[in-house]
Amino acid sequence: MLSAELRKSVTDLSRRPARTIFTVLTLAIAVASISFFAVPTLIDRTMQDEVAAGRLADVTVAMRPVELTDDQLAGIAALPNVAAVEARSGVDARVLIGARRAPARLVGVRAFADQGVDVVRVEQGSFPGPDELLADVQDANVGVYDGSTGDTVTLVGAAGERADFTLSGRGRTLPGGEQVQDENVVVLYAPASTVARLSGEPGYGELALRLDDPSPPAARRTVEQVRRELATVPGFDGFTNLPSIRAAGDWPGKADTEQFAKLLGVITVLALISAAVLISNTLSTLVAEQTREIGVMRAVGARRRQVALVYARTTLLLGALGSLLGTLLGIALSSLLARYFGSTYWAVEVGFGVDLRVVLASVLVGLVAPPLAALPAIRRALRVDLREALEATGSTTGGQDAVDRALRRAGFLPRVMQIGLRNVGRRKRRSLATAAIVALAVGNLLAVLALAQAATDSTKASWGSHLEDVQISTSGRAPFDERARRTIVTTPGVAEAQPVLKNTVELAGREAFVWGVEPDPLFRYRLAAGRWFTADENRDGEPVAVIERNIAQNAGIDVGDTVTLATTSGGARFRIVGMATNQQEDGTALYVPLRTTRALLDRPTGASAYWVRTDSQDPAAVDRATSLLEDRLAAAGYEITSEIRYVRERDEVAANSSLTTTIAVLGFLIVAMSMVGLANAITTNVLERTREIGILRSIGARARDIRRIFTTEGVTLAVVGWLIGIPLGYLLTRLIVRLVWEIVDVRLPVVFPPGNILVALVGTTVLALLVLFLPVRRAVRFRPGDALRYA
User: Fold this and answer.
1) Beta strands 609-614 and 470-474: pairing type?
2) Which of 244, 270, 400, 478 is deepest in the core (most CB within 10 A)?
3) What is the pLDDT of residue 242?
4) Per-residue DSSP letters for 103-160?
5) Residue 683: which of 769, 768, 786, 771 has the closest Cα?
6) Would you state the pLDDT for residue 669?
7) Same domain, yes or no: 193 and 298
């Protein structure tokens, strides 16, 4: 049997079922948003299964192609700490998709039936034979190539020759899928003999190792042992880049997932703050309208503590309902989000799952938040003098302060609209709370839209730094030389070409990139401090560098400091002469004189790429010049890839748009929550004033008059909320941009487009009218007698 206190709580909730339902929905959405924290865990579980199934490498080393026999590979596999080794070859080519040439990368597999590391697994079809290719599943998932089993694939090889192959099916590896995702290149798998035939270079350019002890110190020792073992092999002259050592539990794309999860965490915090405001407003209303009942309970002997426990129990009931619904909704939502991200970014199917830690946190927040939110309202009600509490009627007359006087001066408006405006000032605390609900929605909407615009502007600014129209690159195994330079500059349509030498290095324990460039590069650098290096410093090969601000701030480096870079040739010291605000390589690039870089890497005339400016910036002209460059360099025996600036900029803007759209959709959950809160506030307002509606109808007010009164009041509150939301949105924008920098190490500009403010105004007004529809419709349907008897 229920106690009197519990019956009182149940009665309070059932007395206004609409308000109770809205409050529970608000709390449920807030609790469900906590499920965002479960998304990376669910994805990680699936990806760890992929790591195990694909036997992901612990260490990968790159070299110029070296022919290795089975006995030599067995010797490497027998080294201490080596559990398995896999030799791979590769060649960059172009695949014909209709009339377009798309960059492609062929990965040569020594023996598909006997793979020990980075296993290529067939998803559809079969392993490729001598004249067949296997497409990576990410090719179709990302949209770079969607061929079907049995299709003919035409490749343009290193020498410019065309070769037709049959597509045997689709397969997957995590490293191959990452290349598709990051570089927008078509990844295809083939027997190693096919790759050697296309490249004209037999041998393997990569070794993938699985280790018994994958810790970094042990991995580095093992790499050194492998280097010594390979030193006895004819043709081996060292590794072309730093070894890639995978951290324990890591997988391709995990860092990006964790960074994105942190942004989801920011959205979750905003959702919880919004929910706290909404729940506090609702519970304050619930307690305030029962001031007289509180007085009666105290008059018959109830202590303040007993009265407080009654309402604490009521809020716990609300919390239990919201927690139950929100937790179930959150489990479904997190599974759906994890499945969406898994299929979109890694072409894996993430199954239904539960993160118990997140479930417990959801339940705890759902139970604890409502009593805490209601505590200030309960304390205010208990402090009311007993006589005032007993005389309370729940209605409020207009005040005489400046706001009320200002509202009364709107005599130019129709009478019913004046009544609606004055109603805004009758209960200022509630009106302000309702406006705050709208302000939260508007502020979050403006911040999310600004974030999307900032990401797009940042991408355009990054590519706007490039003055070339196309970048022609070659792999490390055959760098461009003087003959390649002559071929490029004599190609019809080429106006200017500059050599660039890029290499991966390590700076203060972080991955960084050295760009060896000319003193006056086809690149628009933007200095925040210091200077650019001079032509004399380039001529003399001075060890100076201009560092990008992102990595400089993360590593605590300033202009004038001397830094040590770890390269494949050992350590090298550079003096920092400038700091740039550019965002190349995600803000981790160092710009070094070209001659200095060539000396560091022992490539006196080498270049890993050429920046090419064409005679015309018309896309068709750039495409023609690029095709000619590809054909002439391929005919000369160079293995090349091309990157057309306008195409890459377009693709990155589209990719950022997809990501920010996802963030925006999640941010709209806060807007939805705010709209539920607004519906709750307006519905409660209509119910509380049912008797007033009866009086108005009794003295001749028509249904449309009642509708205009409440519509005026609702739209006024929405516009006030919109005005408050503008500065709030700007502050949230700055906060989110700051958090993106702190969490993701990406510096975005602070943008706040005026057009978004107008979009928010229109959206706020339309949503307010939609939210008003049902409660106002209910109000105008009251018969005067029923309204006057309403309790």
Assistant:
1) antiparallel
2) 270
3) 84
4) EEEEEEES-TTS--SS--EEEEE----TTEEEEEHHHHHHTS----TT-EEEEE-TTS
5) 771
6) 65
7) no
